[in-house]
Amino acid sequence: MARNDHPGPDSLQGEKMIEAKANGVTFLAGRPVARPEAPTVVFLHGSGLAAAFWQRQLDDLSARINTVAVDLPGHGRSDPPALESVPQYAAAVMAFIRACGFARPLPCGLSLGGAIALQMLLDFPAELVGGILIGTGARLRVRPEIFDRINQDYPGFVALSGSVAASPATPAGTLASVEALTAACPPAVTAADYRACDRFDVMDRLAEIDRPVLVICGADDQLTPVKYSDYLVRHIDRAQRCIVPRAGHLVPVEQPAAVNDAIRRFVARHLA
What is the spatial distance between Cα 133 and Cα 120, in angstroms, rounded to a whole number? Predict the structure, then answer.
């Protein structure tokens, strides 16, 4: 179901999933709960991906939590252009949340999306009730060879990125949907995402965050390893950590049940 106007909670009752657009940003929404005061988790995808990355979370969590997954500007079905920095993306997502009027929003992001969520907690704290940071860090650096591969052999980059991101324990084929999303993303957009990551650094600002924060990381994550999550938890006063066994960088797809359970428990404990 596609709409150009933002549907309110009443109009979505009884619908499992909708696709809509607000403020130029396309989003998927799970069936909202009956309680309009419930938090709204706004899922933010990583570099070269799209809202559909979060399908397993939308399907499972929407019975009790308002869930929305966005195509970042320039990605998926959202309006171009893609943006050049994490602060720009944070401002765009916040404008989208305001346009929709989502109740009690908290951003939940993976990798680049986690950096955007972190930036939002710093730039718009009064408008958010908390945040969930998955496979990310306070500073992200990208190896030069990644840019070379994107620019010179994008199909090769897509094929390699899944294997590098996954845990050795992740069964073959698990990340096929993720690889398809990356393959569909224009190489220039993916490269811009990685440039935004490479410039991101808020290591000296984490003490400013005063909202509850859940930090999730795959135990086998080689791209944003556990030490990145440990740093976040040490420097964000109200942060808690969840390390997921047998998962790599793409933990929401590799171990969706564990991630969904952690999100449910976090929301119930801090935001119910």
Answer: 11
